[in-house]
Write a structure and sequence with these properties.
This protein has 27 helices and eight strands. With 626 residues, it is of the alpha/beta class. This is Ferrous iron transport protein B.
């Protein structure tokens, strides 16, 4: 294929159509509409981490991460580059309100000779901003089909679907003059030559020529300054095109723009954020975690479901013999497969998961999430995190198990490790916190402030320690602020449903296996051995031997440990120390299962051991002081 050649533009059976676009252009919504099926739709940069595929007529439609270009500057660009190089056609989704930004990627695709059709999305928002774009003129300038769309309302989608078969690229490109500087014996397609003159290392390595790849695997071309020349040339072309097709009518700032300015100003944004975070905590931590979950556990499961299941199993199975261990595994009081396990999944996790995804959906669709991240970024930087980590910390007060999953949105692997460790160590879940607050209320307000102070100190010291000891560097918060908008209920509800379904699909098998393992351990007397082994450890924190039973309950579920404290005849100081210890103690079984799934076995084990050390170290120190 010469540099003038392009691939056949018609999408036939067994061919691939890739959706490509910058973050927050509505690409995932377009994907869902074109494929006539719903996928996860986000309004937060970088949330399309994995590619998604669906049938598209006789072809395959592939969604890609949101990127600003397809040179290999990060993992998302590398993934997108590979998909584009293999695709038969590309639907390039462009934000009509950010035409000057998004056309850079469009021209890169066209320079590569990729058959393309442009979906000019968010035309309604462009109109609201006083922006008028001549789509016909833009199509003439680019030389490829351009279809105006409002994907969230389905406008223009049918026309876009019809015009995918017209995807094409110009016969030649204005950056061909840089192709002449490539070695004569380089055998590469037009797409590869475009990436080569942009200094793309993996492409240089793929063409496998010593004249292209310098010592150490770094392309010699990257040192010639061609990347800057090519990018500068492309940027000027974008400006020329935009100047000819776009006109703007000046309008007053909208309410969304004014509110966004207030959010980004620390003086006004901080109180707004505190009110918002307080509202999130109240909704997830009080309304859902305490009231709804409490009703489900106490009334639905405690009075109806569990008794019925217990009676049914007992009536169906013999009282002794082979049925005894089976019955114990199915309906035992700690983690019975048909009773407590179902209660945890349906009565505890399901309401919390739905509530969390509902709140996150509102924050994403409204544009609030990245603004919260910007506002809290400076404080979190001090413990090796960036502003994205604020969400797991908030969710952790509702449910640490759920919060571990949300660490997926946090920067790199190092930051996810720090976030997960802090969640498992010093963030009490709402069910546990509610019982602790009740116990501390009987001690006096000063003990409540002391409890919070200890947790904050541990959180800060642990964060600083992890930041200093873990290899690598934290990533700065680099995020685009999408426009503020009123969230769309239909989109939020569909998003919540699909995310919840995906979570349950992953979680139910894990919880089932965990329940069986715990039941077997308890049936063979393993719990009794553990309780006796823990008895000497309680002396380290100045607590009596019966505190070992509380710790054993905490291994299964944190609020069980807090509840176990309610019938202990402890002094004021012993109660305070005990509450601190059970808060810093190991995450519950379900949280540990998710930590193991989200991180790795080594990290999970180190976090588990570390929580023992911190809990008894801090508890022992408090016992000496008090």
């Amino acid at each position: 294929m010469s540099c003038h050649e392009t691939r056949d533009s018609e999408v036939d059976a067994d061919e691939t159509v890739a959706l490509v676009g910058c973050p927050n252009v509505g690409k995932s919504v377009v994907f869902g509409e074109l494929a006539e099926q719903y996928v996860d739709v986000s309004n937060y940069p970088g949330t399309t981490v994995d590619t998604t595929e669906a049938a598209f007529g006789d072809a395959k439609l592939t969604d890609t991460p949101g990127v600003y270009g397809i040179s290999s500057f990060d993992e998302e660009e590398r993934v997108t580059r590979e998909i584009v190089l293999e695709a038969d056609a590309v639907v390039n989704v462009v934000d009509a309100t950010q035409l000057n930004r998004d056309l850079f990627l469009t021209l890169q695709l066209l320079d590569m000779g990729i058959p393309t059709v442009v979906a000019l999305n968010m035309m309604d928002e462009a109109e609201a901003d006083g922006i008028d774009i001549d789509a016909d003129a833009l199509e003439a300038e680019l030389g490829v089909p351009v279809v105006p769309t409002v994907a969230v309302d389905g406008e223009g989608i049918d026309k876009l679907r019809d015009r995918v078969d017209e995807a094409r690229a110009p016969e030649s490109t204005s950056i061909e003059r840089w192709f002449d500087e490539l070695p004569d014996d380089v055998e590469a397609t037009r797409a590869e030559k475009t990436l080569l003159v942009e200094g793309d290392e993996p492409t240089a390595e793929r063409v496998s020529t010593g004249k292209v790849v310098a010592d150490g695997g770094v392309p010699a071309l990257a040192e010639t300054g061609q990347r800057e020349d090519v990018y500068g040339h492309r940027r000027r072309r974008v400006e020329d095109i935009v100047g000819g097709v776009l006109s703007r009518e000046e309008r007053d700032s909208s309410w969304a723009e004014r509110f966004s300015d207030l959010m980004l100003n620390p003086l006004t944004g901080t109180p707004i954020a505190l009110v918002m975070l307080g509202g999130i905590f109240y909704f997830i931590g009080v309304v859902v975690a305490q009231k709804i979950v409490g009703f489900l556990e106490t009334t639905v499961f405690g009075e109806y479901y569990n008794p019925v299941v217990n009676n049914t199993v007992e009536s169906l199975l013999p009282a002794a013999g082979w049925a005894e261990p089976v019955e114990f595994m199915l309906i035992n009081g700690n983690l019975g497969l048909l009773t407590i396990t179902v209660q945890y999944i349906v009565g505890v996790l399901l309401p919390l998961v739905v509530a969390f995804y509902f709140v996150i959906g509102i924050l994403e669709d409204s544009g609030m999430l990245p603004r919260l991240a910007v506002l809290t970024d400076r404080g979190l930087n001090r413990i090796g995190l960036n502003g994205r980590a604020i969400v797991p910390m908030i969710v952790g007060v509702g449910c640490v198990t759920m919060a571990v999953i949300t660490t997926r949105m946090v920067g790199n692997r190092r930051e996810r490790l720090i976030s997960t460790a802090l969640l498992g160590l010093a963030v009490p879940c709402s069910a546990q916190l509610g019982i602790i607050m009740g116990l501390l209320a009987g001690l006096g307000l000063i003990w409540w402030f002391g409890y919070l102070g200890v947790l904050l100190v541990v959180l800060g010291v642990a964060g600083l320690f992890l930041d200093r000891t873990l290899p690598g560097d934290s990533t700065p918060l680099v995020t685009e602020l999408p426009r503020m908008r009123a969230p769309r209920p239909r989109n939020i509800l569909r998003k919540t449903y699909n995310r919840t379904k995906m979570f349950l699909r992953e979680a139910i098998p894990l919880f089932g296996v965990t329940a069986i393992a715990i039941s077997v351990l308890e049936y063979v007397g393993g719990f009794g051995l553990i309780q006796r082994a823990l008895s000497p450890v309680t002396a380290l924190v100045g607590l009596p031997q019966e505190f070992a039973r509380v710790l054993l309950l905490g291994l299964v579920r944190r609020d069980f440990a807090a509840a176990g404290m309610t019938d202990m005849a402890f002094t004021t100081a012993e109660t305070f120390v005990g509450l601190v210890v059970i808060t810093l103690f190991v995450p519950c079984i379900l949280a540990m299962v998710m930590i193991l799934k989200e991180r790795d076995a080594k990290s999970a084990l180190l976090m588990w051991i570390g929580s023992w050390v911190v809990a008894f170290g801090v508890g022992g120190l408090l016992a000496v002081i008090l």
